[in-house]
Amino acid sequence: MRSYNVAVLGATGAVGQQMLQCLAEQDFPVGNLKLLASSRSAGKIMQFKGEDVVIEEARDEAFDGVDIVLGAAENNIAERFVPVAREKGAVTVDNSSAYRLDPDVPLVIPEVNPEDVAKHNGIIANPNCATIIGLVAVNPLHKLGGIKRMVVSTYQAASGAGVGGLRELESQMARIAAGEPVEDPKAFAYQLACNLIPQIGGFDEVGYTSEEMKMQNEGRKILHAADLRVNCTCVRVPVMRSHSESITLEFEREVSVEAAREALAAAPGVKLVDDPSALAYPMPLDTTDQDDIFVGRVREDISAAPGQHGLTLWCCGDQIRKGAATNAVQIAKMLAE
Amino acid sequence: MRSYNVAVLGATGAVGQQMLQCLAEQDFPVGNLKLLASSRSAGKIMQFKGEDVVIEEARDEAFDGVDIVLGAAENNIAERFVPVAREKGAVTVDNSSAYRLDPDVPLVIPEVNPEDVAKHNGIIANPNCATIIGLVAVNPLHKLGGIKRMVVSTYQAASGAGVGGLRELESQMARIAAGEPVEDPKAFAYQLACNLIPQIGGFDEVGYTSEEMKMQNEGRKILHAADLRVNCTCVRVPVMRSHSESITLEFEREVSVEAAREALAAAPGVKLVDDPSALAYPMPLDTTDQDDIFVGRVREDISAAPGQHGLTLWCCGDQIRKGAATNAVQIAKMLAE
């Protein structure tokens, strides 16, 4: 079996570290492995499959001989190095938002639009974490009834702001437990422990945040549904690493609760957790460090007007895994296969 | 000025204690004050306006000579004593859900349907906390455009489960901070710290919880809007005592964002906190121990179909105050006036 030389760009972050673990778990055929980061981290050691790997500074020459780049860096770093990697013949699966809406770049969730991988020209974009989690949950229902409209409220974990976000929430909880004042926040605009922050990303002129618009803009591209309408409210919650979403769907055609549950139970990447009588429903603690998206609370939308076909559901998924690293490594595996 | 003999039924709970504070703050003309609780608490001392008051056991005779009862007890206690109090000539403002949908009992939010107070026959019901907070926020917009439909996702605080819920969340946070395992939960079905629980109340046969149905059932009665359709998803979040709600509204008539903001800014009981450019929006930490409902993130519903008139907003309010005690004492003041 052929092996592939892999570079992880931004290897020291929460997503970069998780990508290494996913490469090992998914038995990706790794040849040479390069861990690329800023000059600050260069020379430090990380582990892959029990072996030491020295971190290199991300520079143009670092991409020589690389087959696949897993991009776990911010937009400005992605924009600096992804074109270089392409120039040198590598294919990048990029987790930044820099290329997601580029018509020349496929935006892929393997459970939803695997066929788009083949259309790449050296770059495949990994969607936004909340978008991946929501679309893995609703795609089996989209196939049944054709989703026209989504009204989504998110409950997004601290890990969406990276390791800094996780450490900040932990520190705030410890200080509250000790009866001490919370330090000025850095990763978030306000205290997150015992609080909710209804803003992720910057605001546009009509009052939506960049995170909120991703669900519609990326959703339309991934589902090949140019007319999909999505109203999203994104809220940061004091949870470590699983995002949750309350989703109300309007369909073209009727989808019964029973048919929805059947489709979800059979869908790849989905675990149906939906037994109210046993108090079984998705919770972020249960999806932590899991690859599957848990879906439950599936029920009729009782507010739908006559003739409207509506369902409501609740889903949770690990933001660092399926929301980022797992999805990227799945795409890389499709490239290798 | 006439004074009124007041009894607080369930005085030792989170809502009962807050009712005492609200009676003092709102300068309610209290004559004799009786604090009623279970036999376990009888004989203990609570303070009202700096004076000691001995807690009495709730028994039929305790309601002799009482003018106004503030009910802060569970349904079974309310059903046991509210009819007795009425028999003895008292008017009860009851925070349990026992009488809320009784056609003979007004269900009142003073900012929304003050006129209904006059229709009482000895009992006035205080609405569900999430319902009060949501309806104070949307009522000014209902007056403008006529709300047909609400899609609501809640983010509900631990205090909704009373003092036990608050202590349980605090204890869990302290144990997590100390690196210790969390004890088996009692107030909630699952661990709440660093988690979300998408169930409040029991489930009905179509999969909605009792808490979720209150928004529609109580909303229809309070707004005198029998055709109002509400789809609600209620979620417990690791926040102490303020509920938050993400609400998407569909109106009969167009309501512009500007008109909505103007109406909210002028509405009693509402504080408009809506300046995205200054990162100003409602957050549960900011509404803690406040009587006002904070409303913000007001924006067009970009998922509304042509001809549908939609807005989306976010609101927060203190669950123990306006969600319960403040609202009840406001009603009592209307009775006194």
UniProtKB/TrEMBL annotation, chains A, B:
GO terms for biological process: 'de novo' L-methionine biosynthetic process; diaminopimelate biosynthetic process; isoleucine biosynthetic process; lysine biosynthetic process via diaminopimelate; threonine biosynthetic process. Residues 5-120 form the Semialdehyde dehydrogenase NAD-binding domain. The active site is at 129 (acyl-thioester intermediate), 243 (proton acceptor). It catalyses: L-aspartate 4-semialdehyde + phosphate + NADP(+) = 4-phospho-L-aspartate + NADPH + H(+). Belongs to the aspartate-semialdehyde dehydrogenase family. Homodimer. This is Aspartate-semialdehyde dehydrogenase. The gene is asd.
